[in-house]
Write a structure and sequence with these properties.
single chain; about 280 residues; 5-stranded antiparallel beta sheet; two-stranded antiparallel ribbon; globular
């Protein structure tokens, strides 16, 4: 039986590693355009689903071009940002800004910032502890916000406005789209999805039976923004501002509730402008 020296084995192993790595990198590059197309198609399908337009991977582009007649990106004051594509907005980064802002506001709400909370806040970008410095940071983060809006026009000329939302469930991120009627108050449709929620429980947020419950619900109680409370059935009186939570999926349901409030709150200036 022929034997090989250790040197030969090392050289052979290193060569094979390089060859395999090169092949994998090549395959990844070849597949990347197809993967990006799939992500884009899924995004278009979700946007369409939020305005009750069902689509497939084969007709999503055509239906999107037909029904989505415009898109804009807003700043935190509800003003349109020029030369910014709604599809290019990184929602993960935008949610991070929301979390930092909430953390900074919690510091402002306290009369005295404890050393422990100063230390914790430093990890979220809250490097200043004086009220003026914290307020400056909140303003700076707000000025960096990018808020996408998609505009849908149906065959009967009715117009709907679609807003992406993203938050946290029990085990990972949750996301979706909410469409509003022209009154900027009434929910026309909703679609949600998740990365790793529990099957049969929190994962049910991506099912139509849960999503249809949001139709016709209201975001505003008079002039006050309320958003939607997702509560365990029987714990609150049914109202235009409540939806039943998923049985056994309370934490994910509350994640959807927080996601809607946190993300849609940033659009209030735009809602007010459109109402007027």
């Amino acid at each position: 039986m022929k034997s090989f020296s250790n040197r030969y084995i090392y050289i052979f192993s290193a060569t094979m590693v390089v060859i395999v790595a090169t092949l994998l990198a090549f395959i990844s590059l070849q597949l990347k355009p197809a993967q990006e197309r799939n992500i884009l198609t899924e995004k278009m399908q979700n946007i369409l689903a939020s305005v009750r337009v069902q689509s497939t991977t084969s007709n999503a582009q055509d239906l999107f071009d037909k029904y989505i007649t415009g898109s804009i990106v807003l700043n935190n004051e509800g003003k349109i940002l020029e030369n910014t594509d709604a599809f290019d907005v990184d929602l993960v980064a935008q949610v991070s800004k929301i979390e930092k802002t909430k953390q900074l506001k919690s510091l402002l709400a306290e009369r005295r910032v404890s050393p422990f909370k100063q230390f914790i806040a430093s990890f979220g970008g809250a490097k200043e502890t004086d009220r003026q410095g914290i307020q400056s940071q909140i303003s700076a983060i707000g000025g960096e916000r990018q808020l996408p809006v998609y505009i849908c026009t149906k065959e009967d000329s009715s117009v709907y406005y679609i807003f992406p939302v993203r938050g946290k469930g029990l085990w990972g991120p949750v996301w979706g789209y909410i469409s509003l009627e022209a009154d900027m108050n009434t929910i026309y449709g909703a679609v949600f999805d998740h990365k790793s929620e529990t099957p049969g429980l929190g994962a049910e947020i991506n099912q139509e039976w849960f999503q249809v419950n949001f139709r016709g619900k209201k975001l505003f109680d008079g002039a006050s923004f309320r958003s939607i409370e997702v509560a365990k059935k029987g714990t609150v009186e049914p109202s235009p501002f409540t939806v039943d939570a998923i049985s056994g999926g309370t934490i994910t349901s509350k994640g959807v509730e927080a996601m809607l409030y946190d993300c849609l709150e940033g659009y209030i200036p735009y809602f007010e402008t459109q109402k007027n």
